[in-house]
Each structure stands twice: as C-alpha cells, then as structure tokens.
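Ticket #4471: structure output looks truncated?

Reporter: J.K.
Steps to reproduce: submitted the chain below (377 residues) through the standard prediction queue, then opened the result file.
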Amino acid sequence: MNCLLKTFSLVTLTTLLLTCATPYQPMSHKGRFEETEIEKDMFQVVFIGKTYANLTTVAGYWDQRIQEICQLREKVPQVLDVQAKKTLTRFQGGNLHYQPSQLGHIRYISAIVRQGIEGDFNAQANTEVFPVFMPSPISSPIHRVAVLSLSESFGTDIPARLDYTVAFIRAKRPDLVFVERESSDTVVEELKLQYGGRVNDATRQRIGRMVGADSLLFYRILPIDTTRTGVIQSSGGTVSGGLEVDLIRVSTGTSLFRQTVTAKTLFPRPSPGKSWSEAEVIRAHGIASEEAAAYGFSALGASLGVNPLGIIPFSETGLVRDVLPSSPAETAGLQKRDKIVSVNNRQFRSWTDRIDLPATMTVLREGKELDLTVSSR
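Returned output as attached by the reporter:
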C-alpha cells in the first residue's frame, strides 16, 4: 500500500495540502481535525489534540473521525499508514507544553466486493469468525502495560482499532497506565526478528525494563496465505485472516491473557469466463482480520474487567455486533443487532458507561423493546 503514497512527490503533496485542505474542524474539548483529499477516495486525515491529551487518546479520536467520514460516504476505511507525534508548542512557567497529533492516509472503499457486471458480492456478510469464549478476569495486579506490534498492518485499520480499545480501557480503568507508543518503538524491530510464536523470558524482562512496564501486550496480524490467492481468484474458496493477542507478565513470563482469533471469508465460484481480482482477495483478508480483531480486543477487555457483559460492540453506542459464548450477555439472551437502550432504568449513553452486574437491561430488537436480566458470572 505504501506504493500509493510514493507516487506523490513532497512538492506535490505540499501543494495539495495548501490548496485542497479543509479548515480545521472543531471537536469540542477533544481537539480539532483536518482532512485533505489527495486523489479520488484517498484522504489525509490529521487530528490535533489538546496539550494535556496523550497519543493513545488522540489515536482513538482519529479513528472515531475516519469512522464518521466513512458513515457519511457509506464506505469503509482502508488505512494506508499512520504516524503519531508530540510537538513542542510553548515554554510557560518552567514547563514544556507538547501538542499531540496523529496523521494518517486512508482510502475509502466499498464493503461490497464487485465481480464486474455479473453482480455484487458482500464480503463482510460472508465472513465468519470462529467462536471466542468469555475469558476469566485477570486476578494478577497490572499497573503499566506496553503495547507492541509484531506484524505489519496489511492495509487494515487494526492498529487504529487497538488504539481505540486502549482508550476505552483507560476510560474504564484509570488505574491502568499504558506506556506511550514512541517509548516502545525502539524495541519493536528487534522483537520482529526474534519472534517465532513466543519471546523468551530474558527478552521479556529486558524489554520491560527498557519501556518501564510490568506487562507486555503483543499483537500480531496473521498474514494472507499467498499460495491460495490464484486458486481463489479462479475457483473461489475461503480467505482466512486472524489476530494473535498475548498479555504477558514481565517478571515471571506468565501469559495473563492469550487469544488467537481466526475468521474466514467465503468467495463463491466466479461466473464462467470471470475471475476475482487479486485486490479483492487481499481486501477479503483485511475484512476477515478486522472481524477477528473486533472479537479479540473485546475478549481482552473482558479479561481486564472493562467488558463484564462480554459484548462485541459496533461503533454506534449500544448496538451489539455479537456476544462472547459463555458470557453474561449470552446467558441473558442478548443477540446480534440488539441495541441497548437502558441499564438499571438509566439511559445508556456511551460504551464507557459503567455496568455493574447483576443488572436489568432494556434492549431494542426489531423495533420492539425487551427487558433482560443479566446475572454476574
């Protein structure tokens, strides 16, 4: 995907920013954003936060903004690259003030994979995630966590989704500190070279000391099986994607939470004389990976006690994407596409609203309100 960006010279990009950029738009107390259309359906989006905000929070707002833009266009984002930084803005009263920002390039694409004039094929509707069960809460105390990626993004928005998840966890658990991303960048490349499914205890302890964390959160996006691409293009079949998440205690090397989530997208056999394009197959891998990530990150939240219901949410507040098997939500009868209206007779306003179990919940299902009783595990 980086080749798309390399076609633009620095001069060309600068000219586009000066002539095509929309004014900074306000987002209340959160900060402000700017979007620039570089070419058709390809945008540069910048979010600039307040000086007291951290990079994880800014990343969450950046992701929120691109989701809002996509909803207006009825498309989904394909993240090409993301860069976060802090810029010194002023020196006042003996204190340095830094302004955090995140810049990224995205391409808006339809969720519909097209097969020429033969019709449309909805890849998202044909994606199935293998079951992810409700994990047990982590009993071991956690104070500082460093997040480390052990793979490329493969053109997905999974890094941005993880940033949003981290922001959600921080909102629900202010006692939990996440080490800023730039503090761990220095060790990521070394880890990628060493990674073979596990990282040895000595390496974990050394990394923990370097980034000042008692726990390490690794994640890895499973790459596409390129040996099957040609077969799928000509004959159809399944495209798999997935995500590995591992939360490790530095001092002991113990895995506090480990989950591998896989999903598959089924391509039908193309019409006679037709074939699927390589880009369509790659995008299907991205969709499968993103679906898997939604389940994996929700399970991570459940293990940290911030998702007590065991819900996989949509970005829209209250709208249920799915529930984790063996979760309180499943036991209570909560279903896909239900919308949570109220909890304990209080309007449900945000996914960060506190939910204490047991609880009484009102949900909207197919236009009718239902009352459900959710018990604790």
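Triage note (M.O.): checked the attachment and the full token line is present. The chain is about 30% helix and 35% strand.
Status: closed, working as intended.
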